[in-house]
């Protein structure tokens, strides 16, 4: 099987994100592989182990995004491709989906392209669906378990109401959730291999496409207001007395 | 040319160790520290991840990473809890690295390979109930008998005493003479052999999730082929083991300073006094500034040792600087972190009281601060010089190590 793991590089989850004008800043926090995409790589590697084949990690981003791809390589991906072009504008999800779809077509013969359920930064969670739509491939989203047999992929979707079994013929796009299994740690052999790996960069020209125009534009960014919470400890002789003071305070604040 | 940047290999090593401790150790460490019980899965997980054999050539069962990676792993481990780093200090630093440096090819195959793979756990047993820094005063004896030695004596304050499979044990092979350093020899001892007894010591101030204990040897037979180095070379082997140990302790202490800084910054930005966050108070800022500065110095000092070891150069002097500075700074950082946390810091609701208890021991073990001071004065006065050793720690060479 030819499996693609689509990943993105995002600021570390501990980053303190601030917005100023239209610029988002995450301070000095490191950029890491999107944690949800680690599950995508894990899912891809599980399929490779079960059915054979190769795993290619695919990422759109600047040069620095190589590090995210290296993480995927260190986990065990066979190769990696970076889609990067100085002419690339800030992409919305549809723009990213167009580029990923072009790359998946260029790679050719792909059976499964696996995404994380969402990214930690934009968090829209729709790129997998949009990529499926562009490729006209079926989408099996929120997969917690994956089984492939005779060219058919069956997944157990983790939905609010419970589990849903769905299947589709290959090739297919999948998005996976945490139930797929904890992402494996990179092995040191994997780390060494990843550090030495030559990661090809595909430009817009390589993909034979022009820079996708953004359909969604950001009008304004606002740093979330800081919560100003005051904590007051009410003391009293008896629980009844404390409750009485509490009731008075609640009434005074006009909460009730 | 000076290049202090880390390679992608270093970065990924760091991230892997950090992810491991955050995912698997963070949820359980407080409980195990409180109960003074080792976390049962720790050694198996460190072995499975390759961390126990990180900086040894692949042909000896290692992961083929360089010596700086070992330091980086120690930093990440101790940023979570000191006992994790102690495992690397003892298993890797004292035991496996000494066999790598002094062992015959046969010993490396029989002992280094399983140690590096994590199939066996090793320790270094040098300290005794009646001696610590004064290595030449040790009383455990190894009497030559037939085609081997007979070991008798006691060792104390030995990390992993109750867990390890084999130990590097230094003992007296000649009666005290006027050349005391020639009277000792070092042996690789099977700790499951007849005559070995061992146990844990409880009631330690810190490193409570770690195993520290005692070993007693009663007429334990050690075959000749398990003597490490020549007879009479034990003092030098022990000293070089301490060099490696000190490097790991120094790197770990840098991690402990970082942990103190991290938690203090968080707390200072959240806690309010007198109508403002305490992070805005200059007296708090002073403490934070000192921690950042100390972290940088500690980090650079251990990077220097890692670099020297990679080159195949002796780092006795630099390891001493790194160890003394970082351990003392980590104790101060933990003390100040506790102060920043106020009464909360004094309770085990927060991690800083554990940091303080854990930091204290490192001013004593692997050569106390006082011993480090004497070593450094010796270099300054020219009374101490590094004479070439019969066996030096091999340099890191990427091609050979990763083949």
Explain how this protein is built.
The complex is a heterodimer of chains A (256) and B (403). With 256 residues, chain A is an alpha/beta fold. Chain A has a single domain, classed as Rossmann fold (3-Layer(aba) Sandwich), CATH 3.40.50. In chain A, 30% of the residues lie in helices and 27% in strands. In chain A, strands 11-10-9-12-8-1-6-7-13 form a 9-stranded mixed beta sheet, sandwiched between helices. In chain A, strands 2-5 form a two-stranded antiparallel ribbon. The longest helix of chain A is centred in the N-terminal third of the chain and has 17 residues, at 35-51. The radius of gyration of chain A is 23 Å and the shape is globular. Chain A starts with a strand and ends with a helix. Chain B is an alpha+beta fold. Chain B has 3 domains: 8-121, Orthogonal Bundle (Butyryl-Coa Dehydrogenase, subunit A, domain 1), CATH 1.10.540; 124-235, Butyryl-CoA Dehydrogenase, subunit A, domain 2 (Beta Barrel); 236-402, Butyryl-CoA Dehydrogenase, subunit A, domain 3 (Up-down Bundle), CATH 1.20.140. Chain B has 12 helices and 10 strands. In chain B, the strands form 3 sheets. In chain B, strands 1-4-5-8 form a 4-stranded mixed beta sheet, covered by helices on one side. In chain B, strand 9 and strand 10 (276-277) form a beta hairpin. In chain B, helix 5 (82-102) packs antiparallel against helix 7 (234-270). Classes of the chains: A alpha/beta (256), B alpha+beta (403). Chains A and B meet through helix 2 and helix 5 of A and helix 1 of B.
